[in-house]
Structures are given as C-alpha cells and as structure tokens.
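The instructor's notes for this session suggest beginning with a concrete chain rather than abstract definitions. Hand out the sequence below and ask the class to guess, before any prediction is shown, which regions might be ordered.
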Amino acid sequence: MTESPNSPWRTSSYSNAGGNCVQIAHLTENTVAIRDSKAPGSGTLRFTPTQLTAWLESIKRG
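After discussion, reveal the predicted structure:
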C-alpha cells in the first residue's frame, strides 16, 4: 500500500528491512495511533500521548 504524501502515517525509524514495521500517526492533538504496516487495514491501537508513553515504558521494562 502506498501512502499519499499527505498521509499522517510514518514508519518507525526502528523498523527493519525484513518487513517488521510499525507505523505511527498523530491523528489529533490528543490521539496517537499505531498500526502494522504489513496489514494497515487490520486495525490500529489508539492512545492519548500520556497513554502511549506509559505503554512504551511498560514494553521497555518487559
């Protein structure tokens, strides 16, 4: 799927060439979404910026 230049979706700089990519979009001032770039139509995770920070910190802690 090719995104338009105006698409809010950006691929993570941590994604690798093997196709393990996530994309993030700032949909509104209070909504950040994450999706799998290989299956963009399969759904998104949506967070407030505070929730996203907490979620990412919990992932880092394992």
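Then share the key points. The CA atoms of residues 4 and 10 lie 11 Å apart. The longest helix spans residues 49-61.
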